[in-house]
């Protein structure tokens, strides 16, 4: 079997492991020219025994060395008919409960789905089990929907998600954001059918949770008890950073100037919260990014969700570039999940301006009218007529715009540039150089060719 090795990844691991090409050749008993040509040529094939030996010599998995350089598309377009063909029914509680439809998305990405709500109004819809992915959900109408978020029904767990029935509505309905593992379910609120747009976006905790699944139960239980004490999570984070650094309360008090008793109380959850300036002092003592020690802003109701009625969305309507836009439900506790309603009232005779550009993936769904979609590809402006029900996946940093008359929704989840990435970008040393050097980096860390490396 032949394995395709990615030269950039091989080079990354050679640098990370401080192994030179000649040393790798010796360790794997391979001609040294083989790896040099892979590193210089961008990729190359080796037999599976060699691949296994290389992986062993670098202490990585073979998959860590394999090519994953498939270029992401700039744009994926799906017509309403394409989306209709993705329909699959699901049964719950013994009835045909939803039809699901998928919006376009590149392989291995999670995209939004549409749901036909079919549970009739005289039935309380049976709950699902919830899921790790937080979600942003919008009623596309035409009918209202009953939302359910808990076993017992209360104003927080049983509420309408209404459609805006105005003829010319571009803010099409109520929206809400839900956190991980929030059970939820939807039923019709009347005889009028209803379509829901729901974007279950990747949880930013998922890579850490994957890591925890490689721990023993004992390790996972100790993690839970560290973060499970009656205190704010930020206090548990501070304690973890102190432990890593061999710092106790006494030393932290001495170096930060905050009283020991106050630090104790904060760390064990019995005292007052530290102020922002105190947390900055603590961060300086520990040499950690103070932002991880701050209290997040509140932004959830008692069952964890954040809702916005369409009337409140309309209150946020504003001019943005050549459009009118309005906000969907959003929470500072889900920084990557966002959405806007967009009204396009341009002239179809004029070429639309390429006045939109996002730093991360975005998803568009046309909710009304006939539009002209333009985007730039290799310096050339492309155009396509799009209409109600069509959808677009848009890559980061692709200039684009819409003309004609109609309305769209846009959803982002931070894929391709998360807020955690932004935290790291904000502290990168010599950012421009880092970005230029890292793009397709085939340089070794600096050793003479033919040497054993130092
Ligand atoms: Fe869901």
Kindly describe this structure.
The structure is a single chain. This protein has about 450 residues and is an alpha+beta fold. The mean pLDDT is about 95. The structure holds fe (ii) ion. Fe (ii) ion binds next to strand 12.
Write the layout of secondary structure elements.
Layout: E1 2-6, H1 7-17, H2 21-28, H3 32-41, E2 43-47, H4 48-58, H5 62-65, E3 75-78, H6 80-84, E4 88-92, E5 95-102, E6 113-117, E7 135-142, E8 145-148, E9 158-161, E10 175-178, E11 185-188, E12 194-200, H7 206-212, H8 217-228, H9 233-244, H10 249-256, H11 260-268, H12 276-286, E13 306-308, H13 310-315, E14 318-320, E15 323-327, E16 338-345, E17 362-377, E18 380-387, E19 391-394, E20 400-412, H14 419-425, H15 431-438
Antiparallel strand pairs: 1-2, 3-19, 4-5, 5-6, 6-12, 7-10, 7-12, 8-9, 8-11, 10-13, 14-15, 15-16, 16-20, 17-18, 17-19, 17-20
Helix pairs in contact: 1-3, 2-3, 10-12
The chain binds fe (ii) ion.
Q: Which key features would you list for this structure?
A:
binds fe (ii) ion; alpha+beta; Jelly Rolls; globular; seven-stranded antiparallel β-sheet; 4 domains; 20 strands; 15 helices; single chain; 434 Repressor (Amino-terminal Domain); 454 residues
Radius of gyration: 26 Å
What kind of assembly state do the chains in view correspond to?
single chain
Q: Main sheet, how many strands, which sense, barrel?
A: 8 strands, antiparallel
What's the β-strand tally? 20
Mean pLDDT: 93
Give the count of structural domains. Answer: 4
Beta-sheet strand percentage? 25-35%
CATH superfamily of the largest domain: Jelly Rolls
Which CATH architecture of the largest domain is right?
Sandwich
């Amino acid at each position: 079997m032949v394995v395709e090795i990615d030269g950039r990844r091989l080079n990354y691991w050679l640098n990370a492991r401080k192994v030179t090409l000649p040393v790798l050749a010796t360790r794997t008993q391979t001609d040294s020219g083989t790896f040099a040509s892979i590193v210089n040529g961008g990729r190359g094939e080796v037999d599976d025994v060699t691949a296994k030996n290389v992986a062993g010599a670098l202490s990585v998995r073979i998959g860590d060395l394999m090519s994953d350089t498939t270029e992401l598309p700039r744009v994926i377009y799906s017509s309403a008919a394409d989306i209709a063909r993705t329909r699959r029914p699901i049964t719950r509680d013994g009835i045909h409960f939803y039809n699901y439809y998928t919006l376009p998305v590149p392989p291995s990405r999670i995209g939004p789905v549409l749901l036909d709500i079919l549970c009739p109004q005289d039935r309380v819809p049976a709950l699902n089990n919830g899921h790790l992915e937080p979600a942003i959900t919008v009623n596309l109408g035409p009918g209202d929907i009953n939302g359910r978020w808990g076993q017992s029904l209360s104003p927080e767990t049983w509420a309408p998600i209404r459609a805006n029935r105005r003829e010319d509505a571009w803010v099409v309905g109520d929206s809400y954001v839900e956190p991980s593992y929030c059970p939820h379910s939807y039923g019709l609120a009347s005889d009028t059918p209803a379509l829901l747009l729901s974007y279950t976006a990747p949880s930013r905790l998922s890579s850490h949770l994957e890591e925890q699944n490689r721990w023993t139960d004992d390790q996972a239980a100790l993690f839970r008890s560290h973060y499970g004490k009656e205190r704010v999570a930020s206090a548990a984070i501070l304690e973890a950073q102190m432990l890593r650094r061999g710092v106790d309360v006494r030393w932290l008090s001495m170096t930060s100037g905050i009283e020991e008793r106050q630090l104790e109380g904060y760390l064990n959850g019995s005292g007052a919260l530290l102020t922002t300036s105190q947390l900055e002092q603590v961060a300086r003592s520990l040499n950690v990014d103070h932002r991880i020690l701050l209290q997040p802003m509140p932004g959830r109701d008692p069952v964890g969700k954040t809702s916005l009625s369409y009337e409140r969305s309309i209150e946020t309507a504003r001019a943005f570039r050549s459009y009118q836009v309005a906000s969907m439900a959003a929470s500072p506790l889900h920084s990557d999940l966002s959405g806007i309603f967009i009204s396009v009232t341009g002239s179809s005779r004029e070429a639309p301006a390429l006045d939109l550009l996002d730093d991360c993936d975005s998803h568009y769904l046309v909710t009304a009218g006939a539009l002209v979609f333009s985007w730039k590809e290799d310096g050339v402006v492309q155009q396509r007529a799009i209409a109600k029900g069509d959808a677009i996946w848009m890559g980061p940093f692709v200039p684009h715009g819409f003309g004609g008359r109609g309305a769209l929704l846009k959803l982002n989840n931070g894929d391709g540039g998360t807020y955690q990435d932004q935290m790291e970008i904000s502290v990168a040393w010599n950012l421009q150089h880092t970005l230029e050097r890292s793009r397709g980096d085939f340089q070794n860390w600096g050793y003479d060719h033919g040497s054993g490396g130092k």
